Amino acid sequence: MTLSKRMFDILAALVLLSILWPLAMGLSLWILLREGRPVLYLSERMKTPDQGFQLWKFRTMTVADRDEGVSGGHKASRITPTGAFLRKYRLDEIPQIWNVLRGDISFVGPRPPLRRYVDQFPELYGRVLRSRPGITGMATLVYHRHEEKLLAECSDAKQTEDVYRRRCVPQKARLDLIYQNRRTLCLDALLMLKTVFRRIKIH
Q1: pLDDT, tens digit, 9 for 90 and up, residues 26-38
Q2: Residues of the chain with pLDDT under 70
Q3: Are 84 and 62 in contact (CB under 8 A)?
Q4: Distant-in-sequence, close-in-space partners of 174: CB < 8 Å, separation ≥ 6
Q5: Which terminus of the chain, N or C, has fewer Cβ atoms within 10 Å?
Q6: What pLDDT does 72 receive?
Q7: Residues forming beta bridges with residue 45, ordered by sequence position
Q8: Is 8 left (phi over 0), alpha (psi -120 to 50) or beta?
Q9: Element (H, E) at 45
Q10: In whole angstroms, what is the distance from residue 125 CA to residue 63 CA?
């Protein structure tokens, strides 16, 4: 990550925190009162092929002893009423601003993958993770809704895993590498704006 991109992330994160902290506190209290603890969901993700970190999100599912792999249709019954609302408006991602401040991720880049997929596709993610992962990015804007539709149709963990590995990983990586070859601060700002206005328009 270049110094200019890092400084851009820090400035944007501080501005957003100054605006969103009352909303974040309100959502935390809402989750606590309606769904109980824990309020946050922490998941190990990878920022380089060999370095993981804890990604922060507001919890949107009931707690399970084992929660492996990506979310597909087989996990739909675990989404809480509060979680459904948070997911609809992507409010569950607000705590990731803390990850940006820590330097775990950027605002724009490939979505940080689970370790299991980095281990399964070492050559591919070795290229993708030359870019610092991000909250949003080209693959998120172009492919995310299609990915959600594909995975929502999966009825069990095995099918979800197969669809994600076979159809989602290669397509998202292709878009992530296009971004990697074209990335500039202007492109980052444009993708962030498109993310905000896309959510407003859709919802």
Answers
A1: 999 999 999 999 9
A2: 199-203
A3: no
A4: none
A5: C
A6: 83
A7: 53
A8: alpha
A9: strand 40-48
A10: 29
